């Protein structure tokens, strides 16, 4: 990809006041986790899961937990990839932008914990985190070792509610605390850096439109065109692990020499 595109994106980011990044499965492809849609997508192979996954969980949480423990269907492959994955240069690039106070917040649709593992602090995991459990009544989050799975389903030690994986199932409402943070950060955002998302699943897919509606800037990093491409100020066509480190270098170079031609 030409340097001029990276430089234009760097200029747009440095000219912005409140940059927020929205990331999707694509940023973790180079960490060995398949995307959901498009070439090599999990849903492309297995088909999209039923949209009422959560209602099925509520109808029989014991059976749902037993399936989870047995890792039936695509979950087996997905969890194996999640457990073995390490952050890639794209995750570290966003952490560096956060440390430079260029990136003010990170909203991820990924459940893979890789942004946290790369050191991101100002982050909201809108679809939850596969390495955590959550009470569906009080939204308390737990580390797996805090909850015994001797009897299924497990119950919340705080309120007695049913515990499930922290990951948000299809048909499940986004936990109110996380959703509020995402909406507040999107409200402050004048430049959204979209990395590896098909922007297909709401409410996350609505955030870029909110930014655009208030004439904010949209920058996309994706090897392929997406639904949002026609509405982006600039699309950096390439893999996140290759593009983001170059973007950070370009921004840092400007930070050091404000007189540079950028
Ligand atoms: N770097 C950057 N982007 C990539 C890369 C890469 N190396 N490889 C693939 N992509 C892009 C694809 O072109 C696609 O546009 O990443 C995007 C992944 O899109 P999806 O698989 O639809 O993932 P995502 O947008 O995160 O899906 C949203 O859907 O199934 C649910 O809950 C799941 O959080 C997920 C949500």
**Cα Rg:** 19 Å
Provide a count of the helices.
10
> In sequence order, what are the helices and strands, one letter per element?
HEHHHHHEHEEEEHEHEEH
Bound molecules: adenosine-5-diphosphoribose
Q: How many distinct beta strands?
A: 9
Strand content: 5-15%
In words, what does this structure look like?
The chain is α/β, with parallel strands linked by helices. It has helices at about 5-15, 40-45, 55-60, 60-70, 75-85, 90-100, 115, 175-190, 205-215, 240-255, and strands at about 20-25, 105-110, 125, 135, 140, 165, 190-195, 215-220, 235. The chain has ten helices and nine strands. The longest helix is centred in the last third of the chain and has 17 residues, at about 240-255. It starts with a helix and ends in a 6-residue tail after the last helix. The protein binds adenosine-5-diphosphoribose. Adenosine-5-diphosphoribose binds near residues 26, 29, 35 and 224.
Short note summarizing the structure:
The protein has 262 residues and is α/β, with parallel strands linked by helices. The protein is built from ten helices and nine strands. A six-stranded parallel β-sheet has the order 3-2-1-7-8-9, with helices on both faces.
List keywords for this structure.
13% strand; 9 strands; binds adenosine-5-diphosphoribose; alpha/beta; 37% helix; six-stranded parallel β-sheet; 262 residues; three-stranded antiparallel β-sheet
